[in-house]
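Researcher: Go.
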Amino acid sequence: MTLIYDAGLEDKPSTHVFAIGVGSYPHLNGGDEDRKAKNTLSLGQLFSPPTSMKTFVEWFFNPSFGFNNPDAPLSTVRCLASSVSPIQIQTSIELSDPISTANLDNIENEFAAWVDDLKKNENNVGIFYFCGHGIMVENHYLLAEDFGNPMSLKPFKYAFDITMTMRALDREINGSIYYFIDACKEISSELALSLGTGPDSLININIKNRVMRKYSCCLSATGDGKLAYAPLNGQVSRFTNSLLRALSGYCGSRVPGQKFWQINGESLGNSINAILDYEWSLEKNSKNFQICDISTSGKVVSFHITNTKPKVTLSVNLNPETNRHLYKIYAESATTVVSQEWKNECFITDVPTGQYKIGAIHANGIDQDTRPDQDVLPPHYNLVLNG
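Model: Structure:
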Protein backbone atom coordinates (compact mmCIF):
# COMPACT_ATOMS: atom_id res chain seq x y z
CA MET A 1 0.00 0.00 0.00
CA THR A 2 1.31 3.44 -0.90
CA LEU A 3 -1.69 5.76 -0.96
CA ILE A 4 -2.24 5.97 2.80
CA TYR A 5 -4.66 8.91 2.75
CA ASP A 6 -7.21 10.20 0.26
CA ALA A 7 -9.60 13.02 1.23
CA GLY A 8 -11.58 12.55 -1.95
CA LEU A 9 -11.18 16.14 -3.14
CA GLU A 10 -10.98 14.96 -6.75
CA ASP A 11 -10.22 17.93 -9.05
CA LYS A 12 -10.52 20.70 -6.43
CA PRO A 13 -7.41 22.80 -5.60
CA SER A 14 -5.52 20.71 -3.04
CA THR A 15 -2.18 19.47 -1.76
CA HIS A 16 -0.69 16.10 -2.70
CA VAL A 17 2.20 14.57 -0.69
CA PHE A 18 4.68 11.93 -1.87
CA ALA A 19 7.21 10.95 0.82
CA ILE A 20 10.06 8.43 0.54
CA GLY A 21 12.36 7.16 3.29
CA VAL A 22 15.14 4.72 2.34
CA GLY A 23 17.23 3.27 5.13
CA SER A 24 17.63 -0.37 4.13
CA TYR A 25 19.95 -0.94 1.16
CA PRO A 26 20.43 -4.72 0.77
CA HIS A 27 23.17 -4.38 -1.86
CA LEU A 28 25.33 -1.93 0.10
CA ASN A 29 27.70 -2.38 3.03
CA GLY A 30 25.99 -4.00 6.00
CA GLY A 31 23.26 -5.49 3.81
CA ASP A 32 22.98 -8.93 2.22
CA GLU A 33 26.55 -10.13 1.63
CA ASP A 34 25.35 -12.69 -0.95
CA ARG A 35 23.80 -9.91 -3.06
CA LYS A 36 26.32 -7.17 -2.40
CA ALA A 37 27.09 -4.65 -5.14
CA LYS A 38 30.42 -4.95 -6.91
CA ASN A 39 30.99 -1.29 -6.12
CA THR A 40 29.18 0.06 -3.06
CA LEU A 41 30.73 3.55 -3.36
CA SER A 42 31.55 3.05 0.36
CA LEU A 43 27.84 3.47 1.16
CA GLY A 44 26.00 1.43 3.76
CA GLN A 45 22.81 1.17 5.79
CA LEU A 46 20.98 4.21 7.15
CA PHE A 47 18.78 4.31 10.24
CA SER A 48 17.35 7.82 10.23
CA PRO A 49 15.44 8.04 6.88
CA PRO A 50 12.43 5.81 7.71
CA THR A 51 11.95 7.60 11.04
CA SER A 52 12.45 10.99 9.42
CA MET A 53 9.91 10.25 6.70
CA LYS A 54 7.42 8.90 9.24
CA THR A 55 7.76 12.01 11.43
CA PHE A 56 7.45 14.32 8.42
CA VAL A 57 4.23 12.65 7.27
CA GLU A 58 2.76 12.60 10.78
CA TRP A 59 3.19 16.38 10.99
CA PHE A 60 0.56 16.83 8.28
CA PHE A 61 -2.05 15.23 10.56
CA ASN A 62 -1.02 16.91 13.83
CA PRO A 63 -4.21 18.45 15.30
CA SER A 64 -2.32 21.23 17.11
CA PHE A 65 0.12 22.64 14.57
CA GLY A 66 -0.08 20.35 11.55
CA PHE A 67 -0.64 21.21 7.92
CA ASN A 68 -3.15 23.94 7.10
CA ASN A 69 -3.70 25.56 3.74
CA PRO A 70 -7.25 26.76 3.01
CA ASP A 71 -6.34 27.46 -0.62
CA ALA A 72 -5.04 23.90 -1.11
CA PRO A 73 -6.17 21.53 1.67
CA LEU A 74 -4.54 18.13 2.09
CA SER A 75 -5.90 15.70 -0.50
CA THR A 76 -3.60 12.67 -0.85
CA VAL A 77 -0.56 11.26 0.93
CA ARG A 78 1.63 8.57 -0.63
CA CYS A 79 4.50 6.90 1.24
CA LEU A 80 7.30 4.45 0.53
CA ALA A 81 9.75 3.21 3.13
CA SER A 82 12.63 0.73 3.24
CA SER A 83 13.47 -0.18 6.79
CA VAL A 84 14.60 -3.15 8.84
CA SER A 85 11.45 -2.76 10.96
CA PRO A 86 8.01 -2.00 9.48
CA ILE A 87 7.05 1.67 9.48
CA GLN A 88 3.61 2.70 10.68
CA ILE A 89 2.31 6.25 10.41
CA GLN A 90 0.54 7.11 13.67
CA THR A 91 -2.15 9.79 13.58
CA SER A 92 -5.52 10.55 15.13
CA ILE A 93 -7.24 9.40 11.94
CA GLU A 94 -7.17 5.95 10.39
CA LEU A 95 -4.71 5.49 7.55
CA SER A 96 -4.10 2.65 5.14
CA ASP A 97 -1.09 0.41 5.86
CA PRO A 98 1.33 -1.33 5.55
CA ILE A 99 3.64 0.94 3.57
CA SER A 100 5.32 -0.50 0.47
CA THR A 101 9.09 -0.64 0.06
CA ALA A 102 11.01 2.12 -1.69
CA ASN A 103 12.44 0.17 -4.61
CA LEU A 104 12.74 1.93 -7.96
CA ASP A 105 9.67 0.28 -9.51
CA ASN A 106 7.47 1.45 -6.66
CA ILE A 107 8.98 4.93 -6.74
CA GLU A 108 8.34 5.24 -10.48
CA ASN A 109 4.77 3.94 -10.22
CA GLU A 110 3.75 6.13 -7.31
CA PHE A 111 5.51 9.15 -8.77
CA ALA A 112 3.41 8.76 -11.92
CA ALA A 113 0.22 8.57 -9.84
CA TRP A 114 1.28 11.63 -7.83
CA VAL A 115 1.91 13.61 -11.04
CA ASP A 116 -1.51 12.59 -12.35
CA ASP A 117 -3.07 13.96 -9.17
CA LEU A 118 -1.18 17.25 -9.55
CA LYS A 119 -2.44 17.68 -13.10
CA LYS A 120 -6.11 17.61 -12.04
CA ASN A 121 -6.12 21.29 -11.07
CA GLU A 122 -3.87 24.18 -12.05
CA ASN A 123 -3.79 25.42 -8.43
CA ASN A 124 -2.70 22.12 -6.88
CA VAL A 125 0.39 22.02 -4.66
CA GLY A 126 2.75 19.04 -4.68
CA ILE A 127 5.00 18.02 -1.79
CA PHE A 128 7.91 15.73 -2.64
CA TYR A 129 10.03 14.46 0.26
CA PHE A 130 13.02 12.12 0.08
CA CYS A 131 15.34 10.95 2.83
CA GLY A 132 18.09 8.46 2.04
CA HIS A 133 21.38 8.18 0.18
CA GLY A 134 22.25 10.79 -2.40
CA ILE A 135 25.33 11.39 -4.55
CA MET A 136 26.37 14.25 -6.78
CA VAL A 137 27.97 14.26 -10.21
CA GLU A 138 26.74 16.83 -12.71
CA ASN A 139 23.28 16.39 -11.17
CA HIS A 140 21.90 15.17 -7.86
CA TYR A 141 21.09 11.44 -7.81
CA LEU A 142 18.86 9.81 -5.17
CA LEU A 143 19.27 6.09 -4.47
CA ALA A 144 16.37 3.64 -4.29
CA GLU A 145 16.41 0.57 -2.04
CA ASP A 146 17.66 -1.71 -4.85
CA PHE A 147 20.61 0.50 -5.78
CA GLY A 148 23.67 -1.55 -6.68
CA ASN A 149 21.77 -4.72 -7.60
CA PRO A 150 24.57 -7.03 -8.87
CA MET A 151 22.11 -8.92 -11.09
CA SER A 152 21.92 -5.94 -13.43
CA LEU A 153 24.58 -4.93 -15.95
CA LYS A 154 23.69 -1.35 -15.00
CA PRO A 155 23.68 -1.46 -11.19
CA PHE A 156 23.55 2.33 -10.97
CA LYS A 157 20.21 2.46 -12.73
CA TYR A 158 18.40 1.85 -9.43
CA ALA A 159 18.51 5.54 -8.64
CA PHE A 160 16.95 8.61 -10.18
CA ASP A 161 18.11 12.03 -11.27
CA ILE A 162 16.12 14.48 -9.13
CA THR A 163 17.68 17.52 -10.85
CA MET A 164 16.32 16.53 -14.29
CA THR A 165 13.06 15.32 -12.72
CA MET A 166 12.42 18.80 -11.32
CA ARG A 167 13.20 20.43 -14.67
CA ALA A 168 10.79 18.07 -16.40
CA LEU A 169 7.97 18.75 -13.92
CA ASP A 170 8.32 22.47 -14.55
CA ARG A 171 6.98 21.71 -18.03
CA GLU A 172 4.35 19.16 -17.00
CA ILE A 173 2.17 20.76 -14.35
CA ASN A 174 0.50 24.15 -13.91
CA GLY A 175 0.53 24.09 -10.13
CA SER A 176 3.31 24.46 -7.56
CA ILE A 177 5.77 22.00 -6.00
CA TYR A 178 7.80 21.98 -2.80
CA TYR A 179 10.76 19.58 -2.76
CA PHE A 180 12.40 18.54 0.52
CA ILE A 181 15.54 16.54 -0.31
CA ASP A 182 17.21 15.15 2.80
CA ALA A 183 20.25 13.48 1.24
CA CYS A 184 23.99 13.97 0.85
CA LYS A 185 25.46 15.77 -2.15
CA GLU A 186 28.96 14.36 -1.84
CA ILE A 187 30.57 14.26 -5.28
CA SER A 188 31.35 10.76 -6.54
CA SER A 189 34.57 10.75 -8.58
CA GLU A 190 33.96 7.09 -9.46
CA LEU A 191 30.69 7.93 -11.18
CA ALA A 192 32.10 11.10 -12.71
CA LEU A 193 34.86 9.08 -14.42
CA SER A 194 32.49 6.37 -15.68
CA LEU A 195 30.58 6.95 -18.91
CA GLY A 196 26.94 5.94 -19.16
CA THR A 197 26.40 5.23 -15.46
CA GLY A 198 24.11 8.12 -14.62
CA PRO A 199 20.52 7.20 -13.71
CA ASP A 200 17.43 8.43 -15.54
CA SER A 201 14.97 11.03 -14.31
CA LEU A 202 11.54 9.91 -13.13
CA ILE A 203 9.96 11.71 -16.08
CA ASN A 204 11.38 12.64 -19.49
CA ILE A 205 12.00 16.30 -20.17
CA ASN A 206 10.85 17.93 -23.39
CA ILE A 207 12.82 21.13 -23.63
CA LYS A 208 10.49 22.39 -26.37
CA ASN A 209 7.66 22.68 -23.88
CA ARG A 210 7.42 25.96 -22.01
CA VAL A 211 7.72 26.18 -18.23
CA MET A 212 4.15 26.06 -16.89
CA ARG A 213 4.41 25.64 -13.13
CA LYS A 214 3.53 28.62 -10.96
CA TYR A 215 6.09 28.18 -8.21
CA SER A 216 8.76 25.71 -7.20
CA CYS A 217 10.88 25.52 -4.08
CA CYS A 218 13.64 23.00 -3.44
CA LEU A 219 15.11 22.83 0.04
CA SER A 220 18.08 20.45 0.07
CA ALA A 221 19.62 19.27 3.31
CA THR A 222 23.07 20.40 2.21
CA GLY A 223 25.02 22.10 -0.58
CA ASP A 224 26.99 20.69 -3.50
CA GLY A 225 29.82 18.39 -2.44
CA LYS A 226 28.63 18.34 1.18
CA LEU A 227 27.27 15.72 3.57
CA ALA A 228 23.95 15.64 5.41
CA TYR A 229 23.97 14.37 8.99
CA ALA A 230 21.72 12.43 11.35
CA PRO A 231 22.02 11.09 14.91
CA LEU A 232 23.61 7.66 15.14
CA ASN A 233 20.69 6.14 17.05
CA GLY A 234 18.17 6.32 14.22
CA GLN A 235 16.43 9.49 15.30
CA VAL A 236 15.13 12.15 12.92
CA SER A 237 17.84 13.69 10.72
CA ARG A 238 19.15 17.20 11.33
CA PHE A 239 17.49 18.68 8.26
CA THR A 240 14.09 17.10 8.82
CA ASN A 241 14.20 17.93 12.52
CA SER A 242 14.93 21.59 11.68
CA LEU A 243 12.22 21.57 9.01
CA LEU A 244 9.62 20.26 11.44
CA ARG A 245 10.71 22.63 14.20
CA ALA A 246 10.25 25.55 11.82
CA LEU A 247 6.83 24.25 10.80
CA SER A 248 5.76 23.71 14.42
CA GLY A 249 5.64 27.42 15.15
CA TYR A 250 9.10 28.88 14.62
CA CYS A 251 8.51 30.34 11.17
CA GLY A 252 6.09 32.62 9.37
CA SER A 253 5.43 36.15 8.16
CA ARG A 254 2.29 38.22 8.73
CA VAL A 255 0.04 38.59 5.70
CA PRO A 256 -0.64 42.34 5.35
CA GLY A 257 -4.13 43.22 6.58
CA GLN A 258 -4.84 39.66 7.73
CA LYS A 259 -4.84 37.82 11.06
CA PHE A 260 -2.74 34.91 9.93
CA TRP A 261 0.84 34.11 9.05
CA GLN A 262 2.10 32.34 5.95
CA ILE A 263 5.09 30.06 5.44
CA ASN A 264 6.67 29.92 2.00
CA GLY A 265 9.85 28.42 0.62
CA GLU A 266 12.21 31.29 1.33
CA SER A 267 11.02 31.92 4.91
CA LEU A 268 11.05 28.21 5.63
CA GLY A 269 14.56 27.77 4.22
CA ASN A 270 15.90 30.71 6.21
CA SER A 271 14.36 29.36 9.43
CA ILE A 272 15.79 25.90 8.78
CA ASN A 273 19.26 27.37 8.35
CA ALA A 274 18.96 29.44 11.51
CA ILE A 275 17.91 26.34 13.45
CA LEU A 276 20.68 24.21 11.93
CA ASP A 277 23.24 26.87 12.81
CA TYR A 278 21.94 27.22 16.38
CA GLU A 279 21.87 23.47 16.99
CA TRP A 280 25.38 23.10 15.59
CA SER A 281 26.64 25.87 17.92
CA LEU A 282 25.45 23.81 20.89
CA GLU A 283 27.57 20.83 19.84
CA LYS A 284 30.99 21.33 21.35
CA ASN A 285 33.87 20.76 18.91
CA SER A 286 31.57 19.37 16.22
CA LYS A 287 32.93 19.52 12.67
CA ASN A 288 29.66 18.35 11.14
CA PHE A 289 28.42 21.76 10.06
CA GLN A 290 25.42 21.63 7.74
CA ILE A 291 23.55 24.34 5.87
CA CYS A 292 20.38 24.01 3.81
CA ASP A 293 20.48 24.85 0.09
CA ILE A 294 17.53 27.03 -0.97
CA SER A 295 16.26 27.29 -4.53
CA THR A 296 12.97 28.98 -5.49
CA SER A 297 11.39 30.07 -8.75
CA GLY A 298 8.13 31.73 -9.76
CA LYS A 299 5.48 33.71 -7.93
CA VAL A 300 5.37 32.61 -4.29
CA VAL A 301 2.66 30.14 -3.30
CA SER A 302 2.22 29.51 0.44
CA PHE A 303 3.05 26.10 1.83
CA HIS A 304 1.40 26.44 5.24
CA ILE A 305 -0.92 28.94 6.94
CA THR A 306 -1.14 29.45 10.70
CA ASN A 307 -3.42 31.58 12.86
CA THR A 308 -0.87 31.66 15.68
CA LYS A 309 1.88 34.25 15.91
CA PRO A 310 5.27 32.56 15.34
CA LYS A 311 7.44 31.72 18.32
CA VAL A 312 11.04 32.79 18.88
CA THR A 313 13.63 31.14 21.08
CA LEU A 314 15.06 34.18 22.85
CA SER A 315 18.58 33.76 24.24
CA VAL A 316 19.99 36.56 26.41
CA ASN A 317 23.43 36.25 27.96
CA LEU A 318 25.40 38.68 30.10
CA ASN A 319 29.05 39.68 29.86
CA PRO A 320 31.01 38.86 31.97
CA GLU A 321 29.26 35.57 32.60
CA THR A 322 30.64 35.37 36.14
CA ASN A 323 28.30 38.24 37.11
CA ARG A 324 25.06 36.76 35.75
CA HIS A 325 23.81 35.77 39.22
CA LEU A 326 23.78 39.44 40.22
CA TYR A 327 21.20 40.45 37.62
CA LYS A 328 17.57 40.18 36.68
CA ILE A 329 17.41 39.73 32.90
CA TYR A 330 14.10 40.66 31.31
CA ALA A 331 12.30 41.08 28.00
CA GLU A 332 9.00 42.90 27.64
CA SER A 333 6.64 43.80 24.83
CA ALA A 334 3.15 45.27 24.75
CA THR A 335 1.70 41.83 25.52
CA THR A 336 4.51 39.71 26.98
CA VAL A 337 6.86 40.03 29.96
CA VAL A 338 9.46 37.37 30.80
CA SER A 339 12.43 37.44 33.15
CA GLN A 340 15.13 35.48 34.95
CA GLU A 341 16.42 36.53 38.35
CA TRP A 342 19.75 35.95 40.04
CA LYS A 343 20.76 32.83 38.11
CA ASN A 344 24.23 31.99 36.86
CA GLU A 345 23.05 30.88 33.43
CA CYS A 346 22.02 32.19 30.04
CA PHE A 347 18.37 33.25 29.90
CA ILE A 348 16.62 31.13 27.27
CA THR A 349 12.86 31.18 26.73
CA ASP A 350 10.24 31.10 23.98
CA VAL A 351 8.33 34.31 23.27
CA PRO A 352 5.90 35.44 20.54
CA THR A 353 7.55 37.32 17.70
CA GLY A 354 7.42 41.10 18.13
CA GLN A 355 9.24 44.19 19.32
CA TYR A 356 10.77 43.95 22.80
CA LYS A 357 12.71 45.96 25.31
CA ILE A 358 15.45 43.72 26.70
CA GLY A 359 17.62 44.60 29.64
CA ALA A 360 19.48 43.65 32.83
CA ILE A 361 18.83 45.09 36.29
CA HIS A 362 21.51 44.78 38.97
CA ALA A 363 20.63 43.53 42.46
CA ASN A 364 21.06 47.12 43.67
CA GLY A 365 18.13 48.17 41.45
CA ILE A 366 20.14 49.95 38.76
CA ASP A 367 19.10 49.22 35.16
CA GLN A 368 22.55 48.27 33.93
CA ASP A 369 21.98 47.68 30.21
CA THR A 370 18.78 48.30 28.26
CA ARG A 371 18.15 47.58 24.57
CA PRO A 372 14.81 49.06 23.45
CA ASP A 373 13.01 48.34 20.18
CA GLN A 374 14.52 44.92 19.54
CA ASP A 375 12.81 43.15 16.61
CA VAL A 376 12.64 39.60 17.95
CA LEU A 377 12.01 37.40 14.91
CA PRO A 378 11.82 33.59 14.50
CA PRO A 379 13.29 31.13 14.94
CA HIS A 380 16.10 32.39 17.24
CA TYR A 381 17.16 35.73 18.63
CA ASN A 382 20.49 35.94 20.47
CA LEU A 383 21.64 38.97 22.45
CA VAL A 384 24.54 39.64 24.81
CA LEU A 385 24.13 42.36 27.46
CA ASN A 386 26.92 44.09 29.34
CA GLY A 387 26.93 43.72 33.11
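Model: Helices lie at 48-60, 104-118, 162-169, 189-192, 238-247, 265-282.
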